[in-house]
Specification:
This is Cytochrome P450. The chain is an alpha+beta fold. The chain is built from 21 helices and twelve strands. The longest helix is centred in the middle third of the chain and has 32 residues.
Length: 519
């Protein structure tokens, strides 16, 4: 018997063993696993193949399927062998426990595989707290006020282009690109101590929108196969360009960030760290901190830069663009905002500071609604509690009483929660009034239901910067151009969620385009 025949003789045995093994594992996970009593479809409980099918093969559609399942199985749902998804607003504080609670919350390998090992993706709770402690002071409200003049300076650049290049020439401006340029200029100054100055260009090019699209399109695949990103770096860029221009843009963007990191590290090593408007940069502070040397490697800094720049650009510019679209398509809402801005800002060329703008209730409501419908991160915001969680609810007139064991992955999704009709009636409509009391003051208790920046001890560290930018973006653009700006060549597909790429992917991706009328 030759080697081929000997190997072939083992095939039936291997097949039988494989079938028995898979059947045994499936039986255990469905009937004997600690999560066996949690409702949900049994195929999802047996393996990650269902998630792979919807998120990889069907390109980010698991979130839509999860939402559908919640209608069938209730607000608590098993979506993986060791993962539970929740759509109950009363359970937010248990899942996303705050730092004052003393409860620890780990992140998951899925997130780190997809995005890297930056602070926001750090798996162990204690390591995340250690990393975050170094950065906290840079993202405090006081620190944000130090960079506020630079935000205004960048916005004035954009306003100048809109007034002189687009208004006088009658050209259509891509507002999404313009806001993206301002956001990356601000966050690069914030992170590196020097700005990329993208908003200097009247065309608002280059920007990083294509790079972010290219990166996010790989997130689900990388979550299952983290070696994919390393493989891409080995392929010549001329071949990548033929595969996808967005992937080429992503690789070029990562190279640019790595060069920026090298610049900061080199300057710090020479004790000549460049001082930004905020003093020492985030990275020079990390280099000079008491963090262990394993936390100061080049790869660690590259991952941090990629996460900080990407998140700091995408979330704010997308929310402001989507808010602008809805304002320009709903004249009644736009008029309310403009009346408030004109009453409180007599001079359109002299925009108040962030703290003052925060006192304007309708502007705040517009910003909250813009954040709600832009979602932030739209994929599952998972946590791994160190203690068991007791869950109780009523579903279809039946009591649901469960104990979620410690070590179980549990989370919520903004794309599901932000459309919970019990909290946000008419959830697919842009209604700023939902954030206001009848007397016109802000309805602060509803703020707890906005998950755009997550919640708890792992809430987005850049939340203060994001709110400062959002207030300044909307107030500046609409106080100056609100009665002169109109949409062109922009449909609702630009703001409609189509799929989950961790970041929300819209049906169309050309941007919100506007024309500026003459003064």
């Amino acid at each position: 018997m030759d080697l081929y025949e000997r190997l072939a003789s083992y095939v039936p045995t291997v097949l039988v063993v494989s079938v028995v093994y898979c059947a045994s594992v499936s039986f255990y996970r469905i009937f004997l696993h600690p999560l066996a009593k949690v409702p949900g479809p049994w195929p999802a409980a047996t393996s990650h193949l269902v998630e792979f099918y919807y998120d990889v093969l069907r390109d980010g559609q698991y979130i839509a399927k999860i939402k559908e399942w919640h209608g069938v199985y209730g607000p608590i749902l098993r979506i993986g062998p060791n993962e539970v998804h929740c759509n109950d607003p009363m359970f937010i504080d248990q899942i996303y426990a705050g730092s004052g609670s003393g409860k620890k919350r780990d992140k998951t390998v899925r997130f780190s595989n997809a995005i890297g090992y930056a602070g926001l993706c750090t798996i162990p709770h204690d390591l995340h707290r250690q990393r975050r402690a170094v950065l906290n002071k840079y993202f405090s409200a006081a620190s944000i006020r130090n960079i506020e003049p630079f935000i205004k300076e960048r916005l004035q650049k954009v306003c100048y282009h809109l007034d002189n290049y687009y208004s006088r020439e009658g050209n259509a401006a891509n507002l999404s690109d313009a806001l993206s340029c301002v956001a990356i200029d601000v966050v690069s100054e914030f992170v590196f101590g020097f700005s990329y100055n993208y908003s200097d260009s009247p065309s608002f090019l280059p920007n990083i929108n294509s790079a972010i699209d290219g990166s996010s399109s790989l997130n689900h695949l990388a979550a299952f196969f983290p070696w994919v990103l390393k493989l891409l770096n080995m392929i010549p860029q001329r071949i990548i360009l033929k595969i996808s221009p967005d992937l080429k843009a992503m690789l070029e963007y990562k190279t640019k960030l790595e060069h920026s990191v090298d610049t900061v590290r080199d300057e710090a090593s020479l004790n000549a760290a460049k001082k930004s408007r905020m003093g020492a940069t985030i990275f020079t502070e990390m280099l000079q901190s008491d963090l262990p040397e394993s936390e100061k490697t080049k790869q660690r800094f590259n991952d941090e830069a990629f996460a900080l720049i990407g998140a700091g650009t995408e979330t704010v510019s997308t929310a402001a663009s989507i808010g602008s679209y809805y304002l320009l398509t709903q004249p009644g809402i736009l008029d309310k905002l403009l009346l408030e801005l004109e009453h409180n800002i007599p001079d359109p060329d002299s925009i108040p500071d962030w703290v003052t703008l925060e006192q304007l209730p309708y502007l705040g409501a517009v910003i909250q609604e813009s954040l709600r419908l832009s979602y932030g991160i739209v994929t599952r915001l998972e946590r791994v509690p160190h203690e068991p969680l007791a869950y109780h609810c009523m579903f279809k007139d039946k009591h649901v009483d469960l104990v979620i064991p410690a070590g179980t992955i549990i989370g919520m999704s903004n794309g599901v929660h932000h459309h919970n009709e019990d909290i946000f009636p008419g959830s697919y409509s842009f209604i700023p009034e939902r954030w206001l009391e009848e007397n016109g003051k802000r309805k602060r208790e509803l703020d707890a239901q906005l998950l755009s920046f997550s919640k708890g001890s792992r809430q987005c560290i850049g939340i203060n910067l994001a709110y400062a930018e959002m207030h300044l973006f909307i107030a500046t653009l609409f106080r100056r151009f609100g009665r002169r700006m109109r949409l062109v060549d922009t449909s609702k597909s630009e703001v409609t969620l189509a799929r989950d790429h961790y970041l929300p992917k819209r049906e169309s991706n050309t941007g919100v385009r506007v024309c500026i009328g003459s003064a």
